[in-house]
């Protein structure tokens, strides 16, 4: 029998970056379709511009600037573009969305070396850049179907208004907000697909959402004006952020303990911003801040090697 020596790894799976990204796109499809149904053709334009633009720019950078002639699109650009689109307001213009795409792909991703080497979630970097550059468009929200300008549940809570959306409206997706955050039901449905395909672990979302729920319950007990736990869970961008952006395998910790630390940190920062900050929402900032701590979290949460004995220093 002829034996051939090859380089490691010797144990391989049938998974590929392309197949994983395809599953993420499938998981985000229900929320994207609902965005088009509720917000109309302008939502479709933003989704197509961001998704196609991000994939095209990613291909151009890798194929021509990095001169990788054998490169085949792995759909990671499309995932970044779609996530960016789902984080946008309907008031954002298509050319402004393209600026966000450029920042997400060329700066937040390519500058660090491309897929797998970026420290921060590219879609969130693009969103925050647009929020700083075009604050009016990024904070102008529309009600579904009638497209009348309206405040989001988190903005209403921050302003202390008497108009409160019902939990049913927030769960089903008939509230103002960014294109992809309005329906908790469809986001959970998509996340269920990722769990079924074993693409993600539920630790970060559970820790993240659980921390938000606990802090909301504590502050709501002190003062009901702070909002109930379910209102905080369903009313803003928490579901989209916790399920699809905090779980990004590139910018999140590697160990289970690290996942717990990361999720709890995201939850605490989100609630601090929501309760005491100037912005009504804090999900994007919370995830980006915790992205910066991932190397440190990986270092302190690194599991012990089985059977290894720690050598004591004589010094």
TrEMBL record:
A Pfam family reported for this protein in Swiss-Prot or TrEMBL: NQR2_RnfD_RnfE
Main location: membrane
Tagged with keyword Mitochondrion: no
Cofactor(s) named in the record: FMN
Modified residues (FMN phosphoryl threonine): 152
Localization, UniProt: Cell membrane
E.C. numbers: 7.-.-.-
Residue ranges crossing the lipid bilayer per the database entry: 20-37, 43-64, 94-112, 124-143, 175-196, 203-222, 228-246, 258-276, 282-300
Superkingdom of origin organism: Bacteria
GO aspect biological process, one term: electron transport chain
Family: Belongs to the NqrB/RnfD family.
The protein's assembly and partners: The complex is composed of six subunits: RnfA, RnfB, RnfC, RnfD, RnfE and RnfG.
Function as written in the Swiss-Prot or TrEMBL entry: Part of a membrane-bound complex that couples electron transfer with translocation of ions across the membrane.
Protein name, UniProt field: Ion-translocating oxidoreductase complex subunit D
Origin species: Mesotoga infera
């Amino acid at each position: 029998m002829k034996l051939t020596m090859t380089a490691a790894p010797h144990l391989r799976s049938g998974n590929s970056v392309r197949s994983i990204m395809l599953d993420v796109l499938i998981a985000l499809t229900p929320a994207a379709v609902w965005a088009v149904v509720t917000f109309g053709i302008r939502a479709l334009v933003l989704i197509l511009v961001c998704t196609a633009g991000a994939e095209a720019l990613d291909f151009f950078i890798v194929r021509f600037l990095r001169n990788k002639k054998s490169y085949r699109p792995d759909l990671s650009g499309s995932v970044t573009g779609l996530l960016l689109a789902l984080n946008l307001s309907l008031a954002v213009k298509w050319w402004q969305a393209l600026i966000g795409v450029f920042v997400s792909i060329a700066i937040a991703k390519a500058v660090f070396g491309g897929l797998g080497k970026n420290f921060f979630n590219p879609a969130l970097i693009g969103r925050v850049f647009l929020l700083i550059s075009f604050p009016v468009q990024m904070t102008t929200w529309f009600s579904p179907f009638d497209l009348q300008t309206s405040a989001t549940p988190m903005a209403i809570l921050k302003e202390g208004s008497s108009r409160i959306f019902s939990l049913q409206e927030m769960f089903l997706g008939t509230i103002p907000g960014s294109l992809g955050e309005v329906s908790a039901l469809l986001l959970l449905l998509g996340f269920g697909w990722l769990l079924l395909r074993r693409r993600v672990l539920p630790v970060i979302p559970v820790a993240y959402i659980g921390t938000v729920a606990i802090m909301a319950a504590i502050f709501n007990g002190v003062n009901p004006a702070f909002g109930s736990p379910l209102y905080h869970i369903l009313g803003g961008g928490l579901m989209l952020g916790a399920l699809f952006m905090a779980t990004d395998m590139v910018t999140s910790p590697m160990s289970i303990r690290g996942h717990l630390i990361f999720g709890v940190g995201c939850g605490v920062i989100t609630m601090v911003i929501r309760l005491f900050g100037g912005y009504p929402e804090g999900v994007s900032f919370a995830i980006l801040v915790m992205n910066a701590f991932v190397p440190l979290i990986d270092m302190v949460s690194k599991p012990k090697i089985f059977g290894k004995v720690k050598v004591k220093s004589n010094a």
